[in-house]
């Protein structure tokens, strides 16, 4: 099942890409699994995700804790640093 | 309140002004208190050239709307708006505007403060600094105090 | 704050607008947060024709200045204004404006709220109601809640 | 010693006067003494001051509790109901 990944702020800069569409492997069940999987995709990913606990994740525009499963109907997953708006 | 109000939520490059936004809300005859919060770009003692505001289109509006609706559930509001700018913002310029109206001042102050605390920690915006010395600045780091401010509610 | 700021304090018949007053304060490059409070005349479900605002000239300004200076001592403010109207005020019109600026939002919210709580209970203003049915209304009674709001500081 | 008295809101309406200058009698030492003294000056004063504990008093533009003495240098004394501005 293809899913769109979007990256923001220094996560985007370190990965070197703003968005991409990937096929989620069977081994990826939770948000934490996804971060593990992505970290192995190359140097930029490793730099972006070296401290996975600071990475915030949104599934289809909703903040989601790392221990949650990624539903089969999820279409867009966003990875970004803690927010600094306001 | 008979019938919950609908919040005004906007993400935009353009500046805003308070009087226009308050008038547009047309908060109605039961409004006795209107609180506005404006967040401005500080000059950091002259070292900051500009802030670059990045956001997550779609989610930014969705999250701001969730925060606004939570405030509307918690306080008897007659008007609520949250407007956030994006793009390049110079020192002294506006970044964010929150407006809360209610019959009495306590609810208006609390709702505006609540929305700001949640906006800071939950709305997907990020600030990058550009320095006046020409060097590329850093991404602004989130403050522990902001999370604490959110948790008090 | 290096050097305490001087508050703007005014009692006037004329209306005010927020953007003009905020711009006039010129709060400077260290201001990251600007909170305004506007108190408005409610229509009381259509029964209120107007409020007549009486004040004690001289003491009103003196007391507002004392309250403002107390806020400036308690919070690191970059701007502070308190403007109160007098005379006949119609439903929907502005009565009072408080503006507080600071580097961070907590101080701006607290100072604006503090000034309003003390203004309500300490500044010598009195409201008389004129009813839409032509009958002379009563003097508005002070609320116990207002004294309680002041004592929390 | 002559002192100027000023009245506001329903205190002014009941007394029927906005201001007057009186000679403070020797018997008046505190703010409470003054309220007692004024209450005996006629029907309007009695109506205005029937509940003296609700009356607020300012000496030369400063709020003053009822138990305070009135200084010899006081030039203006204001009587008014609890404030309802803001």
UniProtKB/TrEMBL annotation, chains A, D:
NCBIfam families: moaD (TIGR01682)
Protein name: Molybdopterin converting factor subunit 1
Pfam families per UniProt: ThiS
Gene3D superfamilies: 3.10.20.30
InterPro entries per the UniProt record, alphabetical: Beta-grasp_dom_sf, Mopterin_synth/thiamin_S_b, ThiS/MoaD-like
UniProtKB/TrEMBL annotation, chains B, C:
UniProt keyword annotations, A-Z: Molybdenum cofactor biosynthesis
Record keyword Metal-binding present: no
Gene3D superfamilies: Molybdopterin biosynthesis MoaE subunit
Catalysed reactions, semicolon-separated: 2 [molybdopterin-synthase sulfur-carrier protein]-C-terminal-Gly-aminoethanethioate + cyclic pyranopterin phosphate + H2O = molybdopterin + 2 [molybdopterin-synthase sulfur-carrier protein]-C-terminal Gly-Gly + 2 H(+)
Pfam families recorded: MoaE (PF02391)
Region (Disordered): 129-153
Compositionally biased region (Basic and acidic residues): 129-146
EC primary class: transferase
EC number assigned by the record: 2.8.1.12
GO annotation, biological process: Mo-molybdopterin cofactor biosynthetic process
Pathway in which the depicted protein is active: Cofactor biosynthesis; molybdopterin biosynthesis
GO MF assignments: molybdopterin synthase activity
Function of the molecule: Converts molybdopterin precursor Z into molybdopterin. This requires the incorporation of two sulfur atoms into precursor Z to generate a dithiolene group. The sulfur is provided by MoaD.
Sequence similarity: Belongs to the MoaE family.
Subunit and partners: Heterotetramer of 2 MoaD subunits and 2 MoaE subunits. Also stable as homodimer. The enzyme changes between these two forms during catalysis.
Name the UniProt record assigns to this protein: Molybdopterin synthase catalytic subunit
